[in-house]
Amino acid sequence: MGLRLGDIAPDFKAVTTEGEINFHEYLGNGWGILFSHPADYTPVCTTELGKTALLQEEFRKRNVKVLAVSVDPLDKHLGWVKDINETQHVEVHFPIIADEDRKVATLYDMIHPNASETFTVRSLFVIGPDKKIKLTITYPASTGRNFYEVLRVIDSLQLTANYSVATPADWKEGEDVIVVPAVSTEDAIKKFPKGVKVIKPYLRYTPQPDKA
Ligand code: BEZ
Predict the structure, then answer these.
(1) pLDDT digits (tens, 9 = 90+) for 30-71
(2) Has this prediction a pTM greater than 0.70?
């Protein structure tokens, strides 16, 4: 059975483009993203890693460490990174795991044999400071992921962790958020001094708490 939300993200040691990494040590006390792609020197993967590199500062601001993985060998990764930098006009500074023995791919169930016997699909895990899995997404090889959506989910997860709020459908940074059901309206009024709008007893909004 694959990994589920709330499970501890399995720890591992791996060879990467930035040296050997112990996963939990690499994450430290912050957040992390572990994501797989099918293969080096392929077009969609090139754009995905380029976009991730472009957003490195956004991940850093949110205290999120990024770690990519595919089953290709280290020398291939190193050559491909030069192509990503050249074609996507970026500098990749996050590590890419050379998972030749498929240790990480197997631990995280990233090979879906009915899609491909050999290559990892586009799996992505967001891991919290408690090392628990907070988000899993799986895309097919032919569809590049939306990394702005990944940032949006991280913003939502961090708001929940810090302020006990949830975010509504299609929420964007700066819009009102939802008071979680576990907080009574009486407590919400004390907790959220910017105000609580009660639409129904179970549907209550408050301005995003970490915005001026
Ligand atoms: C790609 O990254 O472009 C790709 C990889 C495997 C299958 C299809 C597309």
Answers:
(1) 999 999 999 999 999 999 999 999 999 999 999 999 999 999
(2) yes
- Indicate if 45 belongs to the active site: yes
Active-site residue among 33, 45, 66, 196? 45
CA distances from 204 to 61, 74, 86, 180 (A): 29, 51, 48, 8
| Of the options 3.30.70.270, 3.40.50.720, 3.30.1020.10, 3.20.20.80, the CATH number for the domain spanning 163-206 | 3.30.1020.10
- Calculate how far, in angstroms, residue 120's C-alpha sits from the geometric centre of ligand 1: 11
Structurally, what CATH architecture does the domain formed by 13-145 represent? 3-Layer(aba) Sandwich (3.40)
Residue 104's closest CA among 25, 207, 13, 205? 13
Cα of 181 to ligand 1 centre, how many Å?
Answer: 42
Q: What are the pocket residues of ligand 1 if the criterion is a CB atom closer than 6 Å to any ligand atom? A: 38-39, 42-45, 141-142
Q: Report which DSSP code applies to 196.
A: -
